[in-house]
Protein: Putative sugar ABC transporter, ATP binding protein
Organism: Christensenella minuta
Amino acid sequence: MEKKDVILTVNGMDKSFGATKALKNVGIEIYRNEIHGLIGENGSGKSTLSSIIAGMQKCDEGTMEYCGRPYGPANIFEAEKAGIAMVGQEQNTLEDISVAENIFIGKEERFQSGPIVNSGKMNREARTVLDGLGLGKIKAEEQLKHYDFEQRKLVEIARALYDRPELMIVDETSTALSKYGREILYRTINGLRDQNKAVLFISHDIVEIMAVCDRVTILRDGEIVCTLPKEQYDSHTMKQYMVGREIEENYYRTDYENRLTDEVALRAEHINTEVLKDVSLELHYGEILGIGGLTDCGMHELGQVLFGLRRPVAGSVCTGDGTPLKNPSVALKKKIAYISKNRDKEALMLSSTILENICLPSLDKLKKGLLVTPGAEKAFALKYADLLSVKMDRITQNVMYLSGGNKQKVAVAKWLGTDADIYIFDCPTRGIDVGVQSDIYDLLERLRKKKKAILMISEELPEVIGMSDRILILKDGSLTAEIGRSKNTTENTLIHYII
Ligand SMILES: Nc1ncnc2c1ncn2[C@@H]1O[C@H](COP(=O)(O)OP(=O)(O)OP(=O)(O)O)[C@@H](O)[C@H]1O
């Protein structure tokens, strides 16, 4: 067999957080000239492994060798200096500084003369990097807060690429990107491979992993199960290796019945914002209304408007009984739940515990007289954490230390506990592994059968088709199609209206 040029070797790596053994005797070899996939269930250790390689934290045991030499970066800057860069799962940018300052964070001295940073020079250099990636629409001097989730991720990719890394780690980034953004990402990592560099690519999407990666390593409960070359890819087997048991292939709804009631739960009329153009819709009890489109079509903004988080320039939103939804407090009183796509900033209180996050919106319900007893709170939080199989040390653990997918489960659990009547889910399965994905679909189905109203915003077309009673497609802020539930709906049916 042809001898491979190994760029990074990890040997016998262990890492624990309290009682959680995140990595157990992990060994992995990454070659030059390859895109190496890393898959595993939520909490299996993917981010822990990649963040140790990227210098964000240290392992307890084990060694690494990089370009033939012992390697153990003290911090992220040392790793970057050695040629290892990472694009993380969450937002790792600062919104109150410019795009250029974000790209060159920690590298400002390159643009310094004396104590002054030459921002003109920095902006020009950032422009070159952005243009190199085809990001002509992003302005180097603009504050990052003026850009959306996807554009911020693309700025992170630009930052990671700037120093021409030898090894680039991409941790569950594609879910934040539209087709356009993903094409930029794939072009970038293919380019690195073709320059004899390497990429460690983490994703929950097995189809994507199979299409993008030359080899894939599967992690389960902190241990390596196996590494497969492309010739041995088989999605069913890979899923089984990930979860350690047989799993159903079809986890979407199988019925094609009509929606359960015609009673209106929410009504939006002629909504206009900077993005949305004259959007009107009705959501009924006993239905899942799917909203599909490209990430920047206005669908995430629509979710915020419906929950009262964002005021439209014109138009109105009210509940079926005519109550205007002007802000989130009214929405909460009317038993509306909203799970934002922006998990860390809007859906969770990161520095609070799992228990506090799950209980907060339900405190009124938990009160006995004027007080909430700790025992009642704990039982309540445990019940909902358990329902969604949150992988945790203890219920009083800080949410900030959970894996990305487990944070998502807490975000969902928090709203389930409220026993809301209307649910607005924005990308409910973002970053969630196949096992829990099917649990969430099950849950949506159970809510529907209980005649709750569910609005599901999603960038994943199979999910929109598989779960919705009706689908509304948004394109450039306008509704372009309404499609009823049918066996004949395919991704192509929707794409026709999306692009
Ligand atoms: N700083 C931390 N403190 C406590 N526990 C942690 C910390 N970081 C990770 N963990 C735990 O280690 C385990 C592995 O987490 P990790 O983030 O590596 O998983 P992952 O495979 O990347 O998951 P996901 O797919 O959900 O992103 C999880 O149980 C997680 O809760």
Observations:
- The radius of gyration is 23 Å.
- The pocket of adenosine-5'-triphosphate is lined by residues 17, 20, 22, 40, 42-48, 89, 172, 391, 401-406 (CB under 6 Å).
- The longest helix spans residues 179-194.
- The chain is about 35% helix and 25% strand.
